[in-house]
């Protein structure tokens, strides 16, 4: 009887929530504040953005997204015909929502477990993967414990991974709090981070995931938080490029050694650098400061609660001193969704989900 009920529920569920032909049945998101859709709202941490002026251009207002509006992962979900993935920590998340994807990203989190400890309690990548593992039995129940249907589903969903910025900004570049800069050269540290990501991606593969989009780090040295006067912090950008190079090599290696997998690398560094080097064709006029009120870009990187942001938000690349505006997020989303191999290698998202 229980099986019949489950199968009946699944039939009704699929008929209501089925994605367009060629789209994945769901999207699962791992990362940091560039992707967090509200996980940090429900955990005891200092890294929160569930207050104005965050969300000023988002339909639901402040939701915990670190932007004025939509994140890149939100826009990609829309392009795929999927709803916005709900945050894992939201106790109201329902099983039908879980089927179409979950957002595990946590602001201030890093690849390394200790990263972001000064913000008290962000969810590191390893724990995000554990949270995904906890989600699987709930999805499995939707299939009436049908193992072959569950396997087919996991093979088709899209996993998005965008993390690593905090391992630099809130770890390696903070010798007052972390010993990593004295323990590792920049090259050794980048290799350490990518080795950790490799373990987590293989772990997801072993759970049944086959389609991955892995995002490079953007030019952190060019964020308002890191600018040296009007110039980018080249030292920081060189560290980021070491990480990105190792990450791209990992993606190539995974495609060679994980049977039936499809792993892609999105060159966010190149996408954002194009905008910052030549902003006017993209509609931007301000790239050296954030749009919302920030007291001190290096110390207080987030928006001042209740402060009135700039009016011309579409002309700003950065919302606060670290995070992109919705306008810049849109460029990253569009180029990773349909860009050439110089942007997304070896497959863009459109190609990835149709394999």
TrEMBL record:
Sorted UniProt keywords: Hydrolase, Lipid degradation, Lipid metabolism, Secreted, Signal
Major subcellular site: secreted
Localization in the cell: Secreted
Entry-linked InterPro entries: GDSL, GDSL_esterase/lipase, SGNH_hydro_sf, SGNH_plant_lipase-like
One example GO MF annotation: hydrolase activity, acting on ester bonds
CC per GO annotation: extracellular region
CDD domains assigned to the protein according to its UniProt record, in alphabetical order: SGNH_plant_lipase_like
Any Gene Ontology biological process: lipid catabolic process
Signal peptide: 1-23
PANTHER family the UniProt entry points to: GDSL ESTERASE_LIPASE (PTHR45650:SF55), GDSL-LIKE LIPASE/ACYLHYDROLASE-RELATED (PTHR45650)
Sequence similarity: Belongs to the 'GDSL' lipolytic enzyme family.
Name this protein carries in UniProt: GDSL esterase/lipase
